[in-house]
Design brief:
Chain lengths: 378, 451
């Protein structure tokens, strides 16, 4: 599978021998990336844990809490009234030690933090305090896994559509440089300064509140349709406004960016040469303009996607989309620490996965990786 | 000096940048004015004020200028206070009782009903509470007995919530019922219209002590207020709109400055020393890329503090190792090889001197557009934090207005002005900075010129 996808983008001139070594190079490159990525994720997760525990300060709070509760218990216990003050202090002390040992608080935070790290790496995310999964479970892992698909569906679909649409439009515009549409895109590219949730409010006002043609938010209509096809259609209908909001935020800037690169590359000598050879315009575009700019386009897209992931909590909040981001928000509202940390961990994984996948695509399309020129694998 | 002048002449060749620049200058002047005219403490106490601070304004009233676009003007709020307008009150003392007559004649010009009608009483007595009878005389001379009750030191009579009165008007809400012509038998309550004319609200009070006093304030709440409208707690939205400007500018500017300058210095140090320092910086950049920015801000806001300053520092800390560091690094790598740096090294300049005097100044052209483009991003970030309830708990800001509006059903119940006004100001502010930044980018990066 990997081999066939790898073979096709290799230039025709490449001989059999070098194509084998290209596969080897890509594999090696990806292996190195995988290892660095794993390290990066671990460090990222550890930082997250440090922040969530206030660098150990939470432990202090919990210790004080335990002391307080046990003191109260002993004071209020009738059967212990006969003890002398020293005996009582001793008893309190003993119980505190037992309780701290039970919760693992007797070990220093640094050691315990590595335990947390291991839990986070293995996705052993513990139990939620307030939030339930749909089947009633309190396992953070289940809660997160349950909400993850809706987030992936929304952002995955809309971003992939937008990527190809912007690429196509940018190519068309670079052909019509200076036209009315071209100037329009240049003028509106600063629209990306406002985040997507912001446009979300505008599209909700226009299409949901004012025109009443599309739903305000949510993922399916209530009650959810039983029929699978109807369910899918209802979901599509609910996805129109979020996609539109993401589009308003990204499209013009992405088109502008891609178009600029296309323009820069289309004045290269080899493009002139190809044109002079009499190659059809489509082929010139595909082989001589699109190919060399693809790595840059993909990098731009990667940063966009990462930005979108980051904004998910607000975006899902505005559209009431029952995904991972909204779960983070609800958890933050309820002070449900395990869920907040759990969703943050998952987001870190998602970001790492995005970066890794885009690295992979990058390795496939960037000739420098395959040919193996020095120092270009950064 | 000359180069600055040249830069501005070049910038003004982009009309969009000129408009943006004008707006930004205007916003800065406005922010300074706001901070002086409505000092911080005053603004905060107004914004956190309860019903007592804001009882004079209508609830969720639209801004006044909506009347320019309407055929029939929405009524405005008006009030009378017998304590201020002494001619409205007459007192007569006889047989140990003090008869107080307060009368408020008012002109009602609209065919639309007011939002609410309320009477606020204040009285002074030792033991016996005064007693009042409230009635209304309509333009056609009818007298409607509204209610009678005894009052404490303060008393609020909300006509609109008087159930007995509502039954008297056959289920029509009292603030409408008192303005309706009863001879017109109208079954459809949506077609009801107020009769314009001179009404008179009369309060007949009896106080049972010699030195007791009684004052009343009548407020007829309209549907429009001020140039910005009011929210669900009757607060004037213009306060948050005005104070949002300095807050947004401060947050945007400080975070953008803090981030770009630190990033630049780190990039300069990394490239100059090279080796493991550079390597570490690169690795941190990669870790930073996969840190979920907003989730971490949510954690900080939930576990530590939601103060604007804590958030500011967190935002700077999380953005220092952002994507910009790669761009700076690429430029620094080029500058590092320049002959004049070589020369500086030859005459024995210290590392720090080379970084600060030779590397950093050369990057300013790249830095300034970066900075200007980062400002709107952070202005919006501040609004975003408010949307997810992580905004500063005290400050009135644009983002908080949007959050309040969305959270209290402004979109579903049609109070669009509440959300759209701050959104519009945010959009204009963000776009202005972005326009200026994009134009600067084109001026400073000739590579982009012409495309």
């Amino acid at each position: 599978m990997a081999e066939s996808t790898l073979q096709s983008p290799i230039p025709v001139v490449t001989k059999k021998k070098s194509s084998e070594s290209a596969v080897w190079r890509v594999t090696k490159y990806m292996a190195v990336r995988l290892v660095t990525m794993a390290f990066t994720v671990v460090i990222g997760l550890y930082l997250t844990i440090l922040i969530a525990n206030m660098g150990g300060y939470v432990d202090e709070i919990r210790r004080n809490d335990i002391r307080e509760t046990i003191q109260q218990q002993v004071m209020n216990d009738r059967s212990l009234q006969s003890l002398t003050p020293t005996q009582r202090t001793q008893l309190i002390q003993d119980r505190i030690v037992v309780e701290e040992k039970r919760l693992g608080l007797d070990r220093p935070f640094v050691l315990r933090s590595f335990g947390f790290l291991w839990d986070a790496v293995t996705l052993n995310l513990g139990f939620a305090e307030f939030i339930n999964a749909d089947n009633g479970s309190r396992q953070v892992r289940l809660i997160v896994l349950e909400r993850l698909p809706s987030t992936l569906v929304l952002f995955g679909t809309s971003n992939i559509i937008l990527f190809f649409v912007t690429l196509y439009l940018a190519l068309t515009l670079s052909r019509n440089y200076g036209s009315w549409w071209d100037r329009f895109i240049v003028a509106t590219s600063p629209m990306s300064a406002a985040p997507s949730w912001f446009y979300g409010i505008f599209v909700i006002v226009i299409f949901a509140a004012f025109l009443k043609v599309l739903p305000f938010g949510g993922m399916v209509s209530a009650p959810p349709p039983d029929n699978r096809i109807e369910y899918g259609l209802s979901m599509l209908k609910h996805m129109i406004l979020p996609t539109l909001a993401i589009a308003l935020n990204q499209v013009t800037f992405a088109i502008y960016n891609n178009r600029t690169f296309f323009l820069i590359y289309s004045s290269e000598d080899y493009v002139e040469m190809a044109k002079a050879k009499g190659l059809p315009a489509r082929e010139v575009e595909r082989k001589y303009i699109l190919r060399p700019t693809l790595p840059t386009n993909i990098t731009n897209f990667a940063f966009l996607l990462i930005g979108v992931w980051g904004g998910a909590p607000i975006f899902e909040g505005v559209f009431n989309w029952p995904g991972l981001g909204r779960t983070t928000l609800i958890a933050a509202g309820l002070f449900d620490t395990p869920v907040i940390v759990g969703t943050t961990v998952i987001f870190a994984y998602l970001l790492a996965l995005t970066v890794f996948l885009l690295d992979f695509v990058y390795a496939l399309v960037d000739p420098r990786v395959k040919i193996g020129s020095e120092g270009s694998s950064q | 000096m000359n180069s600055i002048k040249k830069f501005f002449t070049e910038l003004l060749q982009y009309p969009s940048a000129f408009i943006g620049m004008m707006y930004i200058i205007g916003l800065v002047i406005f922010s300074i004015y706001v901070v002086i005219a409505l000092p911080y403490d005053e603004a905060i106490s107004l914004w956190r004020g309860d019903e007592n601070t804001w009882y004079k304004t209508p609830r969720t009233a639209q801004p006044k200028w909506v009347n320019w676009f309407r055929e029939e003007d929405l009524p405005e709020t008006f009030s009378f206070n017998s304590a201020d307008q002494l001619d409205t009150k007459t007192e007569e003392f006889s047989n140990g009782t003090n008869k107080i007559l307060i009368s408020f004649p008012f002109e009602y010009n609209s065919e639309l009903f007011p939002q609410e009608v309320s009477l606020y009483f204040k009285s002074n007595y030792d033991a016996k509470q005064p007693f009042v009878n409230v009635k209304l005389i309509t333009p056609d001379g009818r007298t409607i007995n509204l209610n009678s009750f005894s009052i404490g030191r303060t008393h609020t009579y909300r006509l609109s919530q008087d159930q007995k009165l509502q039954r008297k008007f056959f289920g029509i809400s009292p603030e409408k019922g008192i303005f309706v012509d009863p001879t017109l038998d109208n079954d459809d309550p949506t077609l009801l219209k107020a009769v314009p004319g001179t009404y008179e609200l009369v309060v007949e009070g009896v106080a049972f002590e010699e030195n007791s006093s009684l004052d009343a304030e009548l407020i007829v709440y309209g549907h429009v207020y001020g140039w910005a409208g009011t929210d669900h707690r009757r607060r004037d939205i213009s306060i948050a709109l005005m104070w949002g400007a300095p807050v947004a500018l401060t947050f945007g500017l400080l975070s953008a400055l803090g981030t770009t300058i630190t990033t630049m210095i780190i990039a300069a140090v990394g490239t100059w020393y090279g080796g493991w320092i550079d390597e570490v910086i690169q690795r941190i950049t990669e870790v930073n890329l996969i840190l979920p920015f907003l989730s971490i801000l949510i954690m900080i806001g939930t576990f530590y503090s939601k103060s604007l300053w804590v958030m500011l520092i967190a935002v700077i800390a999380l953005s220092i190792f952002g994507g910009a560091i790669k761009g700076f690094r690429a430029v620094f790598l080029q500058i590092k090889e320049a002959p004049y740096v070589e020369a500086a090294r030859a005459y024995g300049a210290s590392n720090w001197r080379i970084i600060m005097q030779y590397l950093v100044p050369r990057i300013v052209p790249l830095l300034i557009p970066q900075l200007v483009i980062l400002i709107p991003a952070n202005v919006f970030l501040e609004a975003s934090l408010n949307i997810i309830n992580l905004g500063d708990p005290v400050l009135p800001t644009w983002g908080k207005l949007i959050q309040n509006g969305v959270g209290n059903g402004a979109l579903t119940q049609g109070y669009y002005y509440w959300v759209l006004e701050p959104a519009f100001v945010l959009l204009i502010t963000g776009l202005s900075f972005a326009l200026v930044g994009f134009s600067m980018d084109r001026i400073f990066n000739p590579r982009l010129r012409g495309v």
